[in-house]
Please model this.
Amino acid sequence: MTDSEDNFQTNREKIGIMGGTFDPIHYGHLFAAEEARVALSLRRVIFVPSGNSPHKSYASMASAEDRYAMTAVAIENNRYFEISRIETDRTGTSYTSDTLRELARIHINADLFLITGLDAALDIPNWHKPHEILSLCTVVVVARPGYIRDKIRELDDIIQDSLLILDTDLIDISSTAIRRHVRTGECVRYMTPDPVWRYIVDKKLYSRTEA
Ligand code: NAP
Model:
């Protein structure tokens, strides 16, 4: 590598992209994003709440605007975390490949790292244009040590080779459990930041049975 090439490489910004339905966002998402940020020395992490998801629909699903608002208040105390309206504002189906293409165009001098959990990573072959996704970013899989490797081996070699696996402790919280707790009147206070549970209460989200 020449000096100028080396300089070019080191000047590139490393940006994490944390995509999610975030229905609602919780400490598991925040912890995973922060773990990835620190481990990979990412300059920042951009949270991208999904708009009209290709893979999710149920009766109690919060609107894209409510999920955006909850994500915005959840990240406000971390100066390395940002949020994007890219999928919230998009009409039609929110495909990750479209989002990454747009983010790569905006952040032309950056390398993008898409942060996902294990289940999401295993599902990538079923996403829209999976190979384009892999060409636009490094997919970072955050999961518990050990368990993940066996599962990842089920993916085809091209996908396996493009994943960056980050062994880490994770917080065992899910959006599904939070919605169930809300529906049954249980406390969700320590599962998600205070402004998020207050938003859920104020807006009376998740009271309907999921279908
Ligand atoms: P989500 O349920 O809100 O989760 C967001 C991410 O956080 C996922 O990668 C999830 O991994 C991870 N996560 C959840 N709980 C966690 C915990 N306790 N600790 C650590 N990580 C945790 O969002 P999602 O519905 O899975 O969607 C993820 C992304 O995939 C979104 O950006 C969505 O648009 C995209 N997607 C795109 C397509 C497509 O383009 N065709 C199809 C499907 C999904 P796990 O799944 O492992 O829990």
